[in-house]
Amino acid sequence: MAPSHKHITVALAGNPNSGKTTIFNNLTGANQHVGNFPGVTVEKKEGHLIHGGYRIKLIDLPGTYSLSAGSLDEIIARNYIIDNKPDIVVDIVDASNIERNLYLSTQISELGIPMIIALNMSDTAQKRGINIDHKYLSTLLNIPVIPTIGNKRKGMAEILEKIIDTAENGQADTPAKVKYGKEFQDEICKLCDLIKKDNSSTNSYRPKWLALKLIENDREIMKYLIKHKYSDDLFRQAAAGRKHLQAIYGDEPASVITDKRYGFISGACSEATSMTAERRQDISDSIDNLLIHPNLGLPIFAILMWLVFQLTFSLGEKPMALIEWVIGGVSYLAATYIPEGLVNSLIVDGIIGGVGGVIVFLPNIMLLFLAIAILEDTGYMARAAFIMDRIMHKIGLHGKSFIPMLIGFGCTVPAFMGSRIIDDKTDRLVTMHVTNFMSCGARLPVYILVCGAFWPHNAGTVVFSIYAIGVVIAIIMVKVLRGTRFKGMSSPLVMELPPYRMPTFRSLFLHMWERSWLYLRKAGTIILSVSIVMWFLMTFPENSNYSRDFSLIINNARSDFDSGQIGLLQRNRIIEESENLMVSENLENSIAGRLGKLIEPVIEPLGFDWRLGIAMISGFAAKEVVVSTMGTVYGVGEVDESSQSLRNNLAGDPKYSKLIAYSFLVFILLYVPCMAAMAVFLRESGSWKETVFQFSYTFGLAWVISFAIYQGGKFLGLG
Q1: Cα separation of 89 and 114, whole Å?
Q2: Can you tell me the distance from the alpha carbon of 18 to that of 13, in angstroms, rounded to the nearest whole number?
Q3: Same fold, 7-169 and 182-275
Q4: Cα angle vertex 42, ends 365, 411, to 5°?
């Protein structure tokens, strides 16, 4: 009988690269949203659809090879199935790699939740000469097996029909169980007797499953059972059982359990699968002969990464310009129709300027994730990590760390977001903590401005040296972090190389859009708040005396022009200079200016004065703002990195020298990322502690290195 509420909750499980996300997208379409699993930063996809009079909720669990406690994804997938008790679990199995994928199926079946196997990419298996009798396999496993081809949307209706049938009638048969042997069964029974003595603390878990986990020495389950009334007896019995089994089998019980499961899988597959008489050469292997070649693999990878870089930051140039034009138009309309004053300044400079600074990066974000989606869905990203792992492992990073670090040369915001491709949390955090030292494109205007002022004839060489320093500092800091807060080397790269596939447009679009929307929704709200704070700091307190004095000068210039005493060009020059000086004077008297004066004793050993201090403070909003802030401080109006008047003012200021300029460039390179990047860092790390550490250690490192450069240069007579 159909449930009266007509609701079904279905969890989608499966190995990475099994086509699980494609099937999820096929079934839910646009009726999906992305959040996080409770208490962690791992994404939780949830979708809804109506079929056969039922409202079906689909939960896309993290891709995982097993339900052991080896990774956060495995724990999340396991805990969701046990704690939330979905009505059905649909396990997506890659038919071309069936034995490896069915390992997860055996573990899910032990949880006691009704289960369906979707034998996906069955066409790929046939092309590789693998014939699978899915009906016989279903009979052997006592689990419904449905052949599907996700990228062609085949088998979707059959999955939905089987979901409804299972929900209405229950699972027809109990799934076939792995036989672990009498010795294991005896130890499981002993543990079950103890577990059942306190059912109040284990109501969500099956006693036999808990006993098996204890024999596997599953640390997460042991933490859970610490509240069991007889936990001490339970742990002693489990330890004794493991010792007894190891003595019998001569190996760790967990390894024996793994062997038993694979033996069960191998037996089922040997009966239900067969190879064609002339098995075709695997096209993936043929491509890999070139793409992961010992000599050619790295150059090909470098070219592909260069293309990704070009796609993200070159093709995004015109859309960015269009967005900037739209934001400029909105800003102009607001400035025109809102009366002059604080409200006008808040809306134009604070809100529109702050939000616009986020939206303008959207083309880069979308293009970046489109490129990553293509590389992932085709199967090449696994090869890229494989190629780079040997090099990156020597400095203490994971092979996948190379991707976000490379992206960091364009923008730190998508670089932090790109770090999610790294599975291990420690590797991901170390990568994020050093990615800031890759000179992002936002720093380049500052480099061009300062180098153009102090090294007009060899600016390119100086800029290159700054980029090189960033790379060297990143390598050094990986070593330091690995030896202190994140002790140990990176986890070894254990990843199968999935077969190459043609990605679907639908999958690529959804993959790109959902992450772009998260960028706007999460980072945008934080940036809006910080932008208003920055506006407040650079606006208050207002100095009415300065405003009256400069207003008088401007009015006199207009009167002199009307009376014919001065020409139009002279009038405009006086007005522009007066307005710029008024802004500069108000800035010096503002909270930001006073902060600059306040921190001057701290930055003076680096060769900096309060004006450079204000520029550094504003650089937290966005590194490009350093240029416009310096223009404001020096009273030269709207400027960019090629502004000759600002270059002349910098180079002609007797307080500055080439040594101070280089010290300043290194500080801009190393100190805290912009607020957009820090907002994304907080989201991706999920930790205020790590965010505060990132802010503090990058600022401290920038101070130490700049101090060494300036004071060392002075000691050597270079200043």
Answers
A1: 6
A2: 10
A3: no
A4: 25
In this structure, how many other beta carbons lie within 10 angstroms of the beta carbon of residue 152?
Answer: 13
Cα(360)–Cα(335) distance, rounded to whole angstroms?
A: 20
Q: What is the pTM (predicted TM-score) of this model?
A: 0.55
Q: Note the pLDDT of residue 493.
A: 46
What does each C-alpha distance from 570 to 296, 563, 587 come to in angstroms?
64, 13, 26
Cβ proximity of 387 and 297 under 8 Å: yes
Count of CA atoms in the C-beta half-sphere (13 A) of 584? 18
Higher pLDDT, 72 or 488: 72
If residue 292 lies in a helix (H) or strand (E), which one and from where to where? none
Q: Which CATH architecture has domain 182-275?
A: Orthogonal Bundle (1.10)
Contacts 24+ apart (CB under 8 A), 455-460: 455/658
At position 598, the amino acid (one-letter code) is L
Query: What residue segments make up the domains of the chain, in order of their start?
Result: 7-169, 182-275, 521-687
Cβ–Cβ < 8 Å for 660, 709 = no
Instruction: Find residue 33's DSSP bridge partners.
Output: 46
Cα–Cα distance for residue pair 273/131, rounded to 1 Å:
5
Which string of b and e fits 586-596 if b means at least 16 CB within 10 Å?
bbbbbebbebb
Percent of residues in the chain assigned helix, strand, coil, to nearest 5: 65, 5, 25
Residue type, 589: N
* Max Cα–Cα distance, the chain, nearest Å: 110
The rounded distance, in Å, linking the Cα atoms of 587 and 569 is: 27
Spatial separation of the C-alpha atoms in residues 328 and 207, rounded to whole Å: 65
- What residues contact residue 510 under an 8 Å CB cut-off, 6+ apart? 25, 32
Q: Per residue in 71-100, pLDDT tens?
A: 777 788 888 888 888 999 999 999 988 888
Which pLDDT belongs to residue 277?
Answer: 43
User: What crossing angle do the helices spanning 182-195 and 231-249 adopt, rounded to 10°?
Assistant: 180
Dihedrals φ, ψ of 7, to 5°? -115, 140
Cβ(411)–Cβ(427) below 8 Å: no
What are φ and ψ of residue 501, in 5° steps? -140, 155
- First and final CA of the chain: distance in angstroms? 87
- In tens, the pLDDT along 461-484 reads 888 889 889 988 998 999 899 888
Which CATH code for domain 7-169? 3.40.50.300
157 CB-contact burial (10 Å; exposed 0-12 / middle 13-18 / buried 19+):
exposed
Burial level of 540, CB count in 10 A (0-12/13-18/19+)? middle
* Sheet containing strand 43-51, strands side by side: 32-36, 43-51, 54-60, 7-14, 88-94, 115-120, 145-147
Pinpoint the alpha helices (H) of 32-145.
72-79, 98-109, 122-127, 134-141
Measured distance CA(142)–CA(172) in Å, rounded: 8
What six digits make up the tokens of 437? Answer: 């030292």
